[in-house]
Amino acid sequence: MKTSHQCVVLITILVFSVVGITGCAKKISIHPGSISSLDSYAFDILLVEQDAINQAKTTYLSGGLPPEAKAPLNVAIDQYNAAEAAWQNYHKTGAGQSTLQQALDALVIGVGTLQNILHKTPTPVSPTGLLIPMEVNHVNDSYRAA
């Protein structure tokens, strides 16, 4: 037979165990409307890389980049558009996970190359995600460096 003190100790241990287990779990926010964490992560990547590309386009078109930046800029734009199309397909259908991952990998490499030319440090994507509505825009091909 257990004493009331033993019951209190046991209940206290159980409460702290449950709180400790649930409190230590890594909390990753995903965007409302996401079908998976990959869907949400891809969205974050697309937003960050789109911003980097738009900044590079603006700098290039204003004459602030050397001519050798044209090819990497156009590659980054093409990679972005491919990744965005793969994300749209995955987001709508749930199919094409490996295609999306490959497109994201290529995009990160393409923008990384571009940022090396710009002498910028790549912007990391927060593992908790950006809490904004899930909408990205296709990079207009008219922005390709001429």
Element layout with pairings:
Layout: H1 4-24, H2 37-61, H3 70-93, H4 97-118
Question: How does this model look, in words?
Answer:
The chain is built from four helices and no strands. The chain has helices at residues 4-24, 37-61, 70-93, 97-118. The N and C termini lie far apart (85 Å). The protein is an all-alpha fold and 146 residues long. The chain has one domain.
Quick description:
By secondary structure, this protein is an all-alpha fold.
| Series of H and E elements | HHHH
What is the SS-derived class?
A: mainly alpha
Q: How many beta-strand segments?
A: 0
As a whole number of angstroms, the C-alpha radius of gyration is 23 Å
The portion of residues assigned to helices is 55-70%
Give me some keywords for this one.
146 residues, mainly alpha
